[in-house]
Amino acid sequence: MLVVGIALNKVAAPVLRDFIKQEMDTDHYTNNTYCHGVTTPCALNTLNYHLVNADPKLRRLTFKNINNNLNNHGNHKNLYNYNVNNSVDLAKLFLPDYLAEFAGFDESLDMSAILRLLGFKNPAPIFHSPDPLISIQLSADDVRENVRNKWGHCNVTDWTELLFNDCFSKLKTLVRSLGLTGSMEKTTLDGLTDWETKGN
Prior knowledge:
This protein is mainly alpha-helical. It is about 55% helix and about 0% strand. It is built from 9 helices and no strands. The protein has helices at about 1-30, 50-55, 55-60, 70-75, 85-90, 110-120, 135-150, 160-175, 180-200. Helix 1 packs parallel to helix 8, helix 6 packs antiparallel against helix 7 and helix 8 runs antiparallel to helix 9. The longest helix has 29 residues, at about 1-30. The relative contact order is 0.15.
C-alpha cells in the first residue's frame, strides 16, 4: 500500500498535473474551445448569467467554484461573476466544490481532483485520447475507484500481491491513454515499473 501511494503521488501525479495544465492552458482556455458550439457565441472571460443560463452545456459547470461566488452570493446564481479569467478557474468549473480548493496546477491539485478532471464526461469529456482503444475517462475512473480510493481508504487485508500488481497496471494504462511524447511516457512508465519491482 505504501509503495502504491508513493508511485501514485510522486511518479503519476506530477505527469498528470502537467498534462491537465497543458491541455487547459492551450486547448481549452487560450483557444476558448469550451465556448465553441454553445447557443450564443461567447468568450470565457466575458460569460455572464444570461449566457450561462441559456446554454445547457455551460449550465452544468460549477461557477460557484470561482470568483469567490459561493462566499459572496451563496446560491444566488444570478449574482455570480461568471468571468473565467484563467485556466485554473476553468478547471475548477468541472469539479464539485470540495475538490476545487487548489490554487494552481501544482501540489495543491491533489490526486482526487486530478482523476475527477481526467474522468469528466458530463455532458462531454474534457480530454480525448489519441488512441481510440483507450479512454482517458474510463481509465481515470478505474484508477480513482481501484487505486486511489483503495489506497486512501485503506483496508490492510485488501492489499494482496494481486491488488498491488493490478494498481500498477491501471496506472500504466492511464499514462498510456494520454498520448504523451514518447520520452515522457517512457520515463513515467519506467518510474512506475521501478517502484513496482523494487519498491518493496
